[in-house]
């Protein structure tokens, strides 16, 4: 197994490079960009805006009553463009230099790879902060939503799927299927709005907090009060996310168990006099869970990032999904590529962990004898 793990870790390098390269090429053909955004802001107001581009790729844009655009960086002297009749070509060249677009695309890509290999993501173009700090601020939110959602989804779906398989065709199987399918059909963001209306001070009760993961006085609470406060803030966003997450995993578990229950070895175990519980959890469970585990990476990554984007917006939770989405809209490329890099790296590592868990559940699986 050790050799297989080393091979997989080695394959992650070209895989990451390929992912970053494809997205880097796509970005080159997209209309607009950080330079164009600055120029549009400068040209889009009667009294122009000020664009201050900080050293190392950081910067910010803010309205200014002085009808001027300033580009400076890294402590060096900047220059000022004045006037409403067009933009000075030198000003545009300076913007391109500050954003790093004065170099050929292949040089920029190779520099990005070298920096990302050292987890040096540079500064945000428009937030005047290191990208790694933005990610650190957003990570606890995404981790809270993703980890708890995955845990709750598996904790409910697997026992429910097993119960449905054992009672296949019964009234319990029918009405639980109806409930989870209806839940799956309801978009999570619509259900989130319904929860806010009902329980967060909308038109009915004001029971749960509307925004954030913790209260304003969180630092003043005792340790057990902090736990309760944190859990209280998670109730609504997790409920909104979980309502549609049960269907796929529950039905996958049920069908997997049904397939195993019909096999010959189960009939043999029953013929030997083993109890139904022993047959189910001693023999069927291990084989049936393999296909369930196979879906873990996708479920985890989806819950951790993309699945929580709208929920983060509705409940004012600044997570990685919302951070990456806003960065893409703003053409804040350091943040876009940094979040892409982290998403891809975590996805590859999660797939590797899944393979390791495969061997723990079923030692008959030997990845070292399989061609990668």
Walkthrough of the structure:
This protein is mainly alpha-helical. The protein is 65% helix and 6% strand. The chain is built from 15 helices and 4 strands. The strands form 2 sheets. Strands 1-2 form a two-stranded antiparallel ribbon. β3 and β4 form a beta hairpin. The chain is globular, with a radius of gyration of 26 Å. About 11% of the residues have low confidence.
Basic shape: globular
Main beta sheet: 2 strands, antiparallel
The helix/strand order is HHEEEEHHHHHHHHHHHHH
Q: What spatial order of strands do you see in the largest sheet?
A: 1-2
Distance between the termini: 13 Å
Q: What is the averaged pLDDT score?
A: 78
Beta fraction: 5-15%
The radius of gyration over CA amounts to: 26 Å
Number of strands: 4
Number of helices: 15
Uncertain runs: 45-85
Helical content (DSSP H or I, runs of 4+): 55-70%
Tell me the structural class.
mainly alpha
